[in-house]
Amino acid sequence: MTTSEPTAHRSSAADRSVILADVSRAATVVAPSWPLSTFVAVNPLGGSEHLDFGEATTTARLQGRRTHLGLAEFRAEHARGAIVDADLDRAIAVAHPMLAGAAPLPLGSTLVTPLEILRHDLIRGPIDDPAEPTAADNDPVTVYIGSWCAAFTDTATATWSMPGRDAGFYPAWLHLAVHDRRVDKLVGKGGRRWLGGLPTNPLDALDTSLSELGTEPSTRVDVLRALLLQLPGWAGYARWCDEWAADGEDRPMLRLVDLLAVLAAIEVARGGTASLLLRDTPATNAAAADDLMSARVDSVVARFGGGQTEPEQRAAVAAILDQVPNVERPGLWLAAHESNFRDRLLGLMQRIDPGETGVGPDAQMVMCIDVRSEGLRRHFERTGNHETFGFAGFFGVPLRWRPLGSSTSQARCPVLVTPQHEIIERPVDDPEAFLNQAAAKVAADEAVYGAKRGLGSPFAFAEAAGWLTGPIAGIRTLIGGRSRATGSSVDGPITAPAVDAAQDPASGFSLVERTLIAETIIKTIGFTRFAPLVVLCGHASHTTNNLHASSLDCGACGGAPGGPSARVAAAILNDPDVRVGLEGVDIQIPDTTWFVAAEHETAADVVTVLDPHVVPDSLQSALAQLRTNLGVAGQKNAAERARRLPGNPDRIRSRGGDWAEVRPEWGLAGNAAFVVGPRSMTRDLDLASRVFLHSYDAESDIDAVALETIMTAPLIVAQWISAQYYFSTVDNDGFGAGDKTLHNPMGDIGVVVGSGGDLATGLPLQSVSGGTDRAHEPLRLLAVVQAPLERIEAIIVRNTGLRNLVQNGWITVAGRSHGHEPWSVRTPSGTWDQWHPAETSNDPTAASLEIR
Amino acid sequence: MGLVLWVVPVLPLLAALLIIGGHRTEHTAGRVASGAIGMAAAASVATLISVGFGEPLLTATSGADGTGWGLATGRIGAVLTTMVTLVTLTVVTFARRYLLGDDRAPRFFALALLVSASTSVVATGSNIVVLAVGWIATGLAISAMVGHRSGWAPARNAARRTRISFLIGDSALVGAIGVIVWALGTDAVTDQALGLEPMRSMAAELQADTITLLGQTIGANAVVAVLLVITGAARSALLPLHRWLPTTLAAPTPVSAMLHAGVINGAGVLLVIFAPIFVSSRLAVILAFGLGVITAVVATAIMLVKSDVKGSLVWSTAGQMGFMVAQVAVGAFAAALFHVVGHAMYKAALFLGAGQSISHVAEHRFLPRRSAPFGPAIRWTTAGVISAGAMAGGLALFQPHLTDSGLIMVVFFGWFSGMAALNGWFRAMPLDLSTGLPIGALGTAVGVGGYVGGLTLFEKFIASTVPFESPLAIGPATLATTIALIALAALLLRLGSGERLEDVRHRVYVALLAESTPDLTRSVTTGAGLRAADNHRLEQNQPTQSAAWQSSHIRIFNEGTHS
C-alpha cells in the first residue's frame, strides 16, 4: 500500500515528447481495433512484422497466448491426410538442411537417418501441449478499468453518461475515482488517497507513476507494454482512436496516453513495481524440459533400436533431437501443413491449360478479390460465355459515402487509404416519402428509447410492450429467417451518386480525377476487350442479430457494403467525358459497352443489379439474361456453400435472416492464398472459396506500377485478413473474440465476454469453428504471382513493409513469368527455387482445396 | 382434462431425464427437447382454454376439492404455465440453432426442460410442499444453467453466487412451511389447497397462533409472511439480495432469456399465491414495499449508467422486479401478474435479440434525422398532456375494476410511459407538426389505451382468484406520497444546478457504476499483499500451473512407455 503523496512531476516539454514517443512505440504491442460496426481485419501481431515469424510468436507465447495449433491437433491433420510424411520431410529439410542430408546412424541393428528420427518424433514422439487456453478469468483491475473505458466511450446505450468526459479519459476518471469505493477494494484506502494527489495532466501523471514504479528510461517502453497488455482489447481500441480514427469522428476518443495514465496510477496504488511488471510469465521448467527430451529419445530408441541400444547411440539420437527443441516442433508442423497446401494449389494450377479464350465474351464481371467471390465467379462463368475479373471491392474509388438524406458519411475504401472526397447519394425522383419513412423510423426508435430508458417510464412500458414483442420473438424463432432467392426490391426512391464535382460542388471528383480512376481500374485489372455488359459487382452480407455482421462485409470498403463503390465506379466508367479522356491514354471503350453496378449478398448468394434503370434500352434484354444467369450462379454457389456449413442445407438462403443463427455464412474462413494474374491461371478450377483472386496482366504492365500497387495494397490487406483468421483460430480466447453466445455489446464499439472486463477483439469462435470441426486451416498466406520473377523481386526489395512480411516468413511468395513456365518459390534468403511437389501418396487427380 | 395438466410438467421432466440419462447427441437432444416442450405448451394452452371456460382443474390424489398431493390449477396457474412453456419453447427452438456446435447443448436442453417443468409445478402444485419442491428445483436447475460454461471461472462464480442467494430464499421458504406445520399441524400443509379461499382461512388460523420473539408477541402469520417476502426477494434479485444477478451474464444468451422470463419473477407469483397470508402482516407488506421501491429506484438508476446492452437489461430486470413487488405490496395483485407475464415476454425478446444492437446503432447513424420542432419544456408538457388525455380515454373506455392503490399505479406509470415515449418521438420528430403531432398522439393513445385495455381484460380473467383489497399498511396515500417524493428527488438531481448538487450528482453516478460491477465487491488482495504474494512466488520459482505441468508429465511418461 502506498500512503505517501505522489511526488508530483511537472514534466518539461522535452520529457513529454519522449514519453509520447515511447507510448506510440509501446502501442505496437497491440493491434488497432476498429469499432465493430466497421470491422477491419488486422494481424494481431502486426506490430512484430519486422521480426521473424518464429521470434514474434515466441514473444506472444511468453505473454500467455497460443500461436500454433497443438501437436495433437497437427497429428490429427496428419491422420486425416491434410499433412503427409513427405510434407514433414520437406519442412525438416528446409529448417535443418544439415540434419536432413546427414548420414544414417546405427541404432540397435539397423541404420536410421536423422530425417526418419525427426519424422518419428514429430508424428509419434511424446508431446507436452500446453493446456488449451481458456478465456481470462476477469481480473479485478481489468473489470474496474474496463468499466470506466466502457462508460467513457459509450454513445449508444447509457442515458446518463460519464460526467466530465469532454476533458478526456484520464482527467474525467481522476475526478470521479476519488469517490469510487471500488478503488478501496483494489488498492486500499491509502491507495485511493494517493490517486487523489495525482496531477490532472495525463502525461504528467504517467511520468509520476512511471517513476513511482521505478521505471528506468531504458525499460520504459517495456513497462508501458506490460501495462497495455493488462487490457489489450481496450488498448487496441485506444490505438484506433490515436492512429486510425478519421478527423471528424464524432465520439469520445480513448487516448493511449490517458489509458496508460490510469493503468500506471492503479499499478502504483496497488503496490506494483516496474520489475514485477517486466517479469516474464513462468519460466520454462528446466527439469520438465529435460524429462520430455529424455522421453523423446526413449521413444525413438524404442521404435528403431529394439532392445539393444548402446549409450553412445542414445547420445547421438539426443544430439539430433536437441536440434529441434519442443517449442520448435509446432513450427515444423506448420511449415509442413503449408507445404501440403502449396503443393495442392500449385499442382492444380499447373494442370490448367493457360490458353486464351478466343471468342469475345457476352458479359464480363468484376468482383472483389474476397475469397467468397471465387465460387460465384466459377459458377457464373459456367452459365454462359462469361469472363470474370478480380479487383479490390472498392473498385479503386477512394470515397466517403453519404446515403440519401443522411448528414453523416463513412469511408468506403481500404483503411490504408484516406478518402479525400465525399460522394452524396442524390435523389432522382421525389425522395419525400422515403425520407419521411426513414425519419419516422428514427423517431419511433427514439420513442421506444425514451420509454425504455428513464427512471419512471420503463415499468408500464415493459409490461405492455411484452405482449407485442414476446409473440413476435416466438414467431421469429419458430419460422427462422425468410429465404432470399432474389435480390431485394429496391425500397427507396431512385437515386444516383453525385460523382461529378463540376455539377455538385459538395460531392464527387473532377474530370481529371475520374479519368485517372477509370484508367487505373482498366489497367490494373488488365482489360484487353470489353463485352457489351460489364458488371462491377461489390459485395455485402445481410445478417440479423449478428454483432459481427460487418466482419462479413467488404473489407476493401472498410468493413461496409460494397454496392455504393460499384455504383460510383460504374457511373465514372459510363461517363462519356471520361471515355474521351481515356482515349488519350490508349484505352478504347466501345460505345456499345455499358458498366453495370451490382451487389453480391454473400449470406444468401443473391446478386442485385443496382441502378438498372440507367442501363440503355438496347441492353435491357441482355441485362435480363444476365440477371437470370446470375440467379443460377447464385443458387449453385449457395448449394456448394451449404455443404460446408453445419445445420440444415435447405436453410442456406434463410440463414442470414434467422436471428438464432450464429453462423450465417463462413465469411472468409478457409482463406489461404492470394493469386495475382489472369483468370486463365485458375479458370475451371474449384478453389473452394479459399483463394483471393486479383486480376493482373503482366504484359500490359511493363513499368510494374500495377503490380506494385497490388503487392503493396490488396496483398497487404489480404495478409491482415489471413493473419486475423490464423490467430483467431489458434487462440480464439486470446486473439479472437471468444464465444459469440456470451457476447455483450458495448454500443457500436465492440463486445465484452460476459458481464464486463476487456473488449474482445478479433473473430468470434463461431467464425472459425463449427463446434468440433475447425472451419479454417491456420496457414500463413501464400501469394502466387504470374509476372517476371525479377519484377516481383524488385517490388519486394524496394517496399519495406512487404519485404518484412516476405523475409520474416509472414507470407510465402510463389511466381512464374508466364503460364508455360514451372512455378518457383521464393526462399526467405531471397533466392527463387523451382517448385516440385513433395512426393505424396495422394492421388493428384483427387486434389482438392476443400478443408474437409 | 386432468391428464392434460399432468403433461405440462411431466413430459418435459421425462424428456430431460431421457437426455441426461441417454447421453443424447446435440441433435437428438434438441429434437427431444422441442418435441416435449411443444407438447407441454399445447397442453398448457388446452388447460388455459379449459379453465377459461370452465371450472378449475384438480388432479390431486385425494380430496374432491383438489387437496392432497398432485396438481391443481385455476386461471392463474394456467396463465403462468402457458407463459412459461411458450417462452421455453421459444428459447429451446432458438438454442437449437444458436448453440449448434456447443458440446454442452444437451445439458442446456435438459435443464431448460427442468426449469419449465419445475416452474409449472410452482404454478400448479396442489399444496405448499409440492409448490416448495417445484420452487427449489427451479432454483437448482437455473443455477446449473448459469454455470453452463463450467470451464470458465466467472461462470462458476455466477452459478455459486446464484445458488447461495437461492439457498437463502429456499431456507426461508422451508422455514415458512415449518412455521405453518408448527402452528397448524401437518394436515394444514398437505391437505390445504392453494386457492384464494383456503389461503384466507389459513391466514386467519395462523393469525390466531402467536410466537414470542425477543419479547415481542407476533402472529405466526407475520412470521410466515416475512419469510415468504425473503423467499421472493432472493429469487427476484431485490436489494440487498441482488448481487448474483449481474454475474449471470457469464452464461450464454438463451440462459439469460430463460432466467429473466421464467424464473426471476418468482416473488410476484409466490406473493400472489399466498396473498391472504401476505397482506395479513403489516410487517411483511412494509418490508416488501420498502425492498420493492428501493430496488426499483436503485436498479433502474444503475440501468441508466450501464453502457453494455446485456448489463442494462439485467439492471432493468432488477428494477422491474422491484416494481412488481411494490405492486403486490399495495394490493395490485392482478396488475402484478400482468407485469409478470408482460415483462417475461419483453425481456426474453430483448435478450434473444441483444445481437441486433450494433447494426441498429450503425444503421441509425446514417438515417436522416430532423431536429425537433420545439424545446424540452414544450415537448414534455405537450407529451404529458396528450398522454394524460390518452389515459383518461382508456379509463373511460375500458373502465378497469381497480382498487385506489391499483388505480394510482396504473394511471401514474401508464401516463409516465406514454409521456416519455411521445417525448422521444417529438425529440426526433420526422414530419412537420401538422402530421407528426397527430401521428404521435395517435400512437400514444393506442399505446396507453391498449395498456389500460389489456390490463382490464387480464384483470377480469383472473379477478375471482386474487384478493381485491388494499393492504392497510401501505394505503393509497402512502403510495402517492412515495411516488411524489421519488419523482421530486429525481427531478432535483436531474435538473438542479449548483456546485454542491453537481458534486452529489458525481457521487451518485460513481456509486451506481460501482454497484454495477459485482465482481469487484469480493475482496481483493491489496497492493502490499499483492507484492508479497508475487515475491513469494518469485522466490519459490514455481510456475503457477505446476499442477497442470505435473499431470502432463504423467501423460508423457505413459505415452513414452507405450511407443
Question: What do these coordinates show?
Answer:
The complex is a heterodimer of chains A (852) and B (563). With 852 residues, chain A is an alpha/beta fold. Chain A contains 29 helices and 20 strands. In chain A, the strands form five sheets. Chain A has a six-stranded mixed β-sheet with strand order 13-12-17-18-19-20. In chain A, strand 14 (743-746) and strand 15 (750-753) form a beta hairpin. In chain A, helix 21 (511-525) crosses helix 23 (576-583). The model of chain A has no long low-confidence stretch (mean pLDDT 89). In chain B, a hairpin with a 2-residue loop joins strand 3 and strand 4 (216-219). Chain B is 75% helix and 2% strand. Residues 521-563 of chain B have low confidence and may be disordered. Chain B has a two-stranded antiparallel ribbon with strand order 1-2. Chain B has a two-stranded antiparallel ribbon with strand order 3-4. Chain B has helices at residues 2-22, 26-53, 75-98, 105-124, 128-146, 153-184, 186-190, 196-208, 220-235, 244-247, 253-263, 266-273, 275-279, 282-305, 309-329, 333-352, 357-365, 376-398, 404-427, 433-462, 476-495, 499-515, 527-540, 546-562; strands at residues 57-58, 72-73, 210-213, 216-219. Chains A and B meet through helix 7, helix 9, helix 15, helix 19 and helix 20 of A and helix 3, helix 6, helix 14, helix 15 and helix 16 of B.
Descriptors for this entry?
A: 852 residues, 6-stranded mixed beta sheet, 5-stranded mixed beta sheet, 43% helix, globular, B: 563 residues, mainly alpha, two-stranded antiparallel sheet, two-stranded antiparallel ribbon, 24 helices, disordered C terminus
